[in-house]
Design goal:
487 residues; Aldehyde Dehydrogenase, Chain A, domain 1; Aldehyde Dehydrogenase, Chain A, domain 2; seven-stranded mixed sheet; six-stranded mixed sheet; binds nicotinamide-adenine-dinucleotide
């Protein structure tokens, strides 16, 4: 099934064992920009998943023995092709998921290519840890574990997918990828890229489809040996049950309700600008610091500067370079976000900013919203909204700031704004989060460990942590030549 999106051809069938495979069932990909149907996509089910996992299991027999230099070369070739297609990938992704075209062009798609380059290079320098044990040679090898199932969400589809696909392939696993049904198109383009790069048939497979059908069938398939899931806590619970039945190691990158702590001694301009930046991608960012915790003595000054800056956010068509934030991904998601806001309003909270859909733009555009001083324990403080909705609370002491920061079941990220380096270290040490940024935000690098505590996830990815996940590490001990250890 070929379709044209922003003038570019996309084949929306599955990609299994090096072939395009059609399903009788299809689903629509709807653009958040205007809610128009932009593509019909194959909706996979258990039979397609079975075919893809079998293909991946067969391909694994050869791929696992492919020399690492050759695997690395192939990944670099994938990166080269992605780099030559940044514009196409950026345009299709923006139409499909409504994120800014300029960030796809400048940041996201180059990073997609980097995912492949980085893990190719990291593979070549993985430490095999040879050492001597009382005259015996000890050897640690990173053996690929088998078929990796990768399931990811729509807020940064190709970036989040390739962040898991690249290390899995580098490690020598074969992959069955189930892209998000709300933004499935760049996964289809990625299949073309891997074919052109010369990735052998069956090493990388894409099964499009709905989560509870294709996703669930993949998660419970008995031949899957690793499950990497990025998405919501509710889905994670179902996937964990499937993984439990098959005893499959899993890696979960889930939601967040991250604290953004502003001390009175901070650089106020930096703090305000960074805080307003939490509305980026229309709030659909897992790492966003959605709970602004501001020291009471600067609360009014902070709030005034924050509101002035936030009111200047330009909302509109994400293809326009002048736009700061675009629409919500889909009608159901828009309504979910609005549900949180409406319930907060019904409880008596008044928004200091926004508080509803953007009626001037209509469609799926939602106004950046701020609630000040929601009552402790209220839903809007507790639950991840995953839309442009922030809360502000204030504190008097450092201890109170830390207690508020940790008053969550999540633990993905935290931001600390302070002019005191010792305070930065003290607070960082006491905040429960996988990632803490001091006087900065989103400084990311693939060498860093990435993951969350509590309801934000299980495990870490990035650098060696990714290989740790996708490999069955083997320890071998060799007696000295000619030394009989038995008999
Ligand atoms: P979701 O859990 O609904 O969907 C994510 C993926 O899981 C999709 O591909 C979907 O098709 C699939 N899926 C759905 N039900 C399934 C099932 N029963 N079995 C198997 N697969 C199934 O999540 P979402 O709403 O699309 O994504 C938003 C969530 O993702 C937010 O909570 C956000 O914080 C989180 N997220 C986390 C990170 C991170 O790295 N920590 C990054 C981005 C997004």
């Amino acid at each position: 099934m070929m379709t044209r999106v922003e003038g570019h051809e996309v084949d929306t069938r599955h990609w299994i064992a090096g072939h395009r495979v059609e399903s009788a069932a299809r689903f629509h990909s709807v653009s958040p920009i205007d809610e128009g149907v932009i593509a019909e996509v194959s909706a996979g089910g258990p039979a397609d998943i079975d075919q893809a996992v079998e293909a991946a299991a067969t391909a694994f027999k050869t791929w696992k023995r492919t020399p690492r230099e050759q695997r690395a070369r192939l990944l670099h070739r994938i990166a080269d092709i992605i780099e030559s297609r940044v514009e196409i990938l950026a345009q299709v992704e923006t139409r499909d998921n409504g994120s800014l075209l300029r960030s796809h062009r400048r940041g996201v798609m180059p990073r997609v290519a980097m995912n492949f380059r980085f893990f190719a290079d990291w593979l070549l320098q993985l430490d095999h840890a040879d050492f001597d044990v009382r005259g015996h040679r000890n050897h640690v090898s990173w053996d690929p574990s088998g078929v990796a199932a990768i399931i990811t969400p729509w807020n940064a589809p190709l970036m989040l997918g390739t962040w898991r696909i690249a290390p899995a392939l580098a490690a020598g696993c074969t992959v069955v990828y189930k892209p998000p049904e709300w933004a499935p198109l760049t996964a289809s383009l990625l299949a073309d890229v891997t074919a052109e790069a010369g990735v052998p048939d069956g090493v990388f497979n894409v099964v499009q489809g709905i989560g509870r059908e294709a996703g669930a069938a993949l998660a419970r398939h008995p031949k899957v040996r690793r499950l990497s899931f990025t998405g919501s806590v509710a889905t994670a619970r179902q996937i964990a049950a499937a993984a439990g039945a098959n005893l499959v190691p899993l890696s979960f990158e889930l939601g967040g309700k991250s604290p953004f702590v502003v001390f009175a001694d901070c650089d106020l301009d930096l703090a305000v600008n960074t805080a307003v930046g939490q509305y980026d991608n229309a709030g659909q960012v897992c790492l966003a610091g959605t709970r602004l915790l501001v020291e009471e003595s600067i609360r009014e000054k902070f709030l005034e500067a924050f509101l002035a800056k936030a009111k200047a956010i330009r909302q509109g068509d994400p293809r326009d370079d002048a736009t700061d934030i675009g629409p919500q991904i889909s009608r159901p998601h828009f309504e979910r976000v609005d549900g949180f806001v409406q319930r907060a309003l019904a409880s008596g909270l008044q928004p200091a900013l926004g508080g509803g859909p953007n009626r001037d733009l209509g469609g799926l555009y939602y106004r950046p919203t701020l609630f000040v001083d929601p009552p402790a324990g209220s839903e809007i403080l507790r639950e991840e909204v995953f839309g442009p909705v922030l809360c502000l609370q204030s504190f008097r002491t450092e201890e109170e700031a830390i207690a508020l920061a940790n008053d969550t079941e999540y633990g993905l990220a935290a931001v600390v704004m302070t002019g005191d380096p010792e305070r930065a270290e003290r607070v960082t040490a006491q905040v429960s989060a996988g990632l803490v940024w001091n006087n900065c935000f989103f400084v990311r690098d693939l060498r860093q460990a990435f993951g969350g505590n509590g309801k934000s996830g299980i495990g870490r990815e990035g650098g060696t942590w990714s290989f740790d996940f996708y490999c069955d590490v083997k320890n071998s001990v060799y007696a000295p030549h000619g030394w009989r250890t038995h008999g």
